[in-house]
Amino acid sequence: MAESMRGLHRTHRCGELSAANAGEMVTVMGWVQKNRNKGGLVFVDVRDRSGIIQVVFEEGKADADLIAKAAGLRSEYVVAVVGKVEKRSGAVNEHISTGEIEVIPSELRVLSESATPPFPIEENSRTKEELRLKYRYLDLRRPDLQRNMMMRSQVATLTRQFLADEGFLEIETPILGKSTPEGARDYLVPSRVHPGSFYGLPQSPQLFKQLLMCSGYDRYFQIAKCFRDEDLRADRQPEFTQIDMELSFVDVDDVIDVNERLLAKLFRDVLGVEVSLPIPRMTWQEAMDRYGSDKPDTRFGMELTDVTETVKDFDFVVFKGAVENGGSVRGINVKGQGGMPRKKIDKLVSFAKDYGAKGLAYIAIQEDGSFKSSFAKFMTEEQSKNLIDAMAGEAGDLLLFAADKNKVVWDVLGALRVELAKQLELLDKNEYSFVWITEFPLLEWSEEQNRYTAMHHPFTMPMEEDLQYLDSDPGRVRAKAYDITLNGNEIGGGSIRIFQNEIQEKMFEVLGFTKEQAHSQFGFLLDAFRYGVPPHAGLAYGLDRMVMLMAKEDSIRDVIAFPKIKDASCLMTDAPGEVDEKQLLELGLALAEEDTEDAEGTEEG
């Protein structure tokens, strides 16, 4: 039977008590973690978000009714305990912060009873994620998840404080906006008042934050909800959170400076980690050539080596074909893995094929200096020696090669070096390796659309010295764009924005927009740019991803209170769900009837 907490006032959270409180009368409230009945001696662990305190009901110190009541407590009952803090008479528990003390109770109230939970509320739960997400309100009671949520809150609070001190204003931008179909798919919201018309949920506050610069607000930030209807994976959600900012009258170095100081503060105050400033910078081209990735993990070596010149005269058709088609041959040296079993190498070949490779060539150098190779018969002795030298190969090394168009080679070896680092346990989650990536290509060619698309977005400023190539060689133009990466993850990105009308018009032209199309999609921004626009720039962090890395988790689901699963549904609330036909009628919508014959055997419904 549940009791009232009337007349009681919580004096401390459970984990806030220490030996300094010995002798004090306290009132704690929380959930029963564990109940151990030793017959006349009952130990109850009471838990809240701050930690655990042990409450000891003992004959001679508590009356029989109180001990009997304590013996009846079950896991996850909510209780209030009034008692005296004493130093432990038994052994100290070094695993909890309150391990030196216990509470000797004078009063116990059961505020709420609990059914038996579908899984134990414990750290590092082995319960399947699907079950935990269905009962997420229970899952969120786990101390490790609670620490993640508290860390996320701390990151948001410190960010607000830091940016406010730097002269940023926190300004909210609309959630209901206009659909702009560049980029990922928009989530659409039908309008009841304007039948047949739809709002688009923002993929980012990009246009609005640029308008705020036009409005003279100088420095803006927002911890903003964003929405993208795209295929999900471990580090993606249909709704996610950005730390979003925009600054006027700045260039690249100004944006990087304020953000380096923000990152240094967050990592110092939250983790006690000193970020060495300035953070290293690397151009996009250098990152691709050295790491095969524009978000390189620099915690380990295994860098790519371009051996195109070395192998161009080999008779090996795979190498020859790649070189003749304007591609390249590159390799990585996996130190000390020359004795890797053939089966394991075959698995690496399969892995490489998943990233677009037709295969993977290798040279395994034995301890005696001899070697086995998948293409030995296509090399002379001198050629093989030259290739091993070019790769800095030594006895016991495994050399892996990819040959194709540059993009494929980069994708394959970039992913392969990270996979090998995982297998060889070279990745230390306690190490935080930041790199700024700069000078991205402004544009990338889309085979699907048969045109150039913006690598970031259509408002990214080209580097002044490359403006001359916009007509003659658009693929050569570099952008004033920058990403901040951490341990092989992009945690934030931004750019200097175009603020001159003629450059913006040229950019739309290169992207294949007519003036009418550009105006239809972005008219309000282009109109605003007619009335005096300051030079401006911005950056946005993925808050979820940054906290995931700070918390040393592998999925952003572990740092989001109520996440969706891979098909964008919520197991707890069953969203998305069907709605009443009356609601559809009010919105002027009708569901298309499914053709059952056509639908059979297809994956889409």
TrEMBL record:
<feature type="binding site">
    <location>
        <position position="237"/>
    </location>
    <ligand>
        <name>ATP</name>
    </ligand>
</feature>
<keyword id="KW-0436">Ligase</keyword>
<feature type="binding site">
    <location>
        <position position="456"/>
    </location>
    <ligand>
        <name>L-aspartate</name>
    </ligand>
</feature>
<dbReference type="InterPro" id="IPR004115">
    <property type="entry name" value="GAD-like_sf"/>
</dbReference>
<dbReference type="InterPro" id="IPR029351">
    <property type="entry name" value="GAD_dom"/>
</dbReference>
<dbReference type="Pfam" id="PF00152">
    <property type="entry name" value="tRNA-synt_2"/>
</dbReference>
<dbReference type="GO" id="GO:0050560">
    <property type="term" value="F:aspartate-tRNA(Asn) ligase activity"/>
</dbReference>
<dbReference type="Pfam" id="PF01336">
    <property type="entry name" value="tRNA_anti-codon"/>
</dbReference>
<comment type="function">
    <text>Aspartyl-tRNA synthetase with relaxed tRNA specificity since it is able to aspartylate not only its cognate tRNA(Asp) but also tRNA(Asn). Reaction proceeds in two steps: L-aspartate is first activated by ATP to form Asp-AMP and then transferred to the acceptor end of tRNA(Asp/Asn).</text>
</comment>
<feature type="binding site">
    <location>
        <begin position="228"/>
        <end position="230"/>
    </location>
    <ligand>
        <name>ATP</name>
    </ligand>
</feature>
<feature type="binding site">
    <location>
        <position position="182"/>
    </location>
    <ligand>
        <name>L-aspartate</name>
    </ligand>
</feature>
<dbReference type="GO" id="GO:0003676">
    <property type="term" value="F:nucleic acid binding"/>
</dbReference>
<comment type="subunit">
    <text>Homodimer.</text>
</comment>
<dbReference type="GO" id="GO:0005524">
    <property type="term" value="F:ATP binding"/>
</dbReference>
<dbReference type="GO" id="GO:0005737">
    <property type="term" value="C:cytoplasm"/>
</dbReference>
<dbReference type="InterPro" id="IPR012340">
    <property type="entry name" value="NA-bd_OB-fold"/>
</dbReference>
<dbReference type="InterPro" id="IPR004524">
    <property type="entry name" value="Asp-tRNA-ligase_1"/>
</dbReference>
<dbReference type="GO" id="GO:0006422">
    <property type="term" value="P:aspartyl-tRNA aminoacylation"/>
</dbReference>
<dbReference type="InterPro" id="IPR004364">
    <property type="entry name" value="Aa-tRNA-synt_II"/>
</dbReference>
<dbReference type="InterPro" id="IPR047089">
    <property type="entry name" value="Asp-tRNA-ligase_1_N"/>
</dbReference>
<feature type="site" description="Important for tRNA non-discrimination">
    <location>
        <position position="90"/>
    </location>
</feature>
<dbReference type="InterPro" id="IPR004365">
    <property type="entry name" value="NA-bd_OB_tRNA"/>
</dbReference>
<dbReference type="GO" id="GO:0016740">
    <property type="term" value="F:transferase activity"/>
</dbReference>
<feature type="binding site">
    <location>
        <position position="490"/>
    </location>
    <ligand>
        <name>ATP</name>
    </ligand>
</feature>
<dbReference type="GO" id="GO:0140096">
    <property type="term" value="F:catalytic activity, acting on a protein"/>
</dbReference>
<protein>
    <recommendedName>
        <fullName>Aspartate--tRNA(Asp/Asn) ligase</fullName>
        <ecNumber>6.1.1.23</ecNumber>
    </recommendedName>
</protein>
<keyword id="KW-0648">Protein biosynthesis</keyword>
<dbReference type="InterPro" id="IPR006195">
    <property type="entry name" value="aa-tRNA-synth_II"/>
</dbReference>
<feature type="binding site">
    <location>
        <begin position="542"/>
        <end position="545"/>
    </location>
    <ligand>
        <name>ATP</name>
    </ligand>
</feature>
<dbReference type="InterPro" id="IPR002312">
    <property type="entry name" value="Asp/Asn-tRNA-synth_IIb"/>
</dbReference>
<dbReference type="InterPro" id="IPR047090">
    <property type="entry name" value="AspRS_core"/>
</dbReference>
<feature type="domain" description="Aminoacyl-transfer RNA synthetases class-II family profile">
    <location>
        <begin position="151"/>
        <end position="563"/>
    </location>
</feature>
<keyword id="KW-0067">ATP-binding</keyword>
<comment type="similarity">
    <text>Belongs to the class-II aminoacyl-tRNA synthetase family. Type 1 subfamily.</text>
</comment>
<feature type="region of interest" description="Aspartate">
    <location>
        <begin position="206"/>
        <end position="209"/>
    </location>
</feature>
<feature type="binding site">
    <location>
        <position position="228"/>
    </location>
    <ligand>
        <name>L-aspartate</name>
    </ligand>
</feature>
<dbReference type="Pfam" id="PF02938">
    <property type="entry name" value="GAD"/>
</dbReference>
<keyword id="KW-0963">Cytoplasm</keyword>
<keyword id="KW-0030">Aminoacyl-tRNA synthetase</keyword>
<keyword id="KW-0547">Nucleotide-binding</keyword>
<dbReference type="GO" id="GO:0004815">
    <property type="term" value="F:aspartate-tRNA ligase activity"/>
</dbReference>
<feature type="binding site">
    <location>
        <position position="497"/>
    </location>
    <ligand>
        <name>L-aspartate</name>
    </ligand>
</feature>
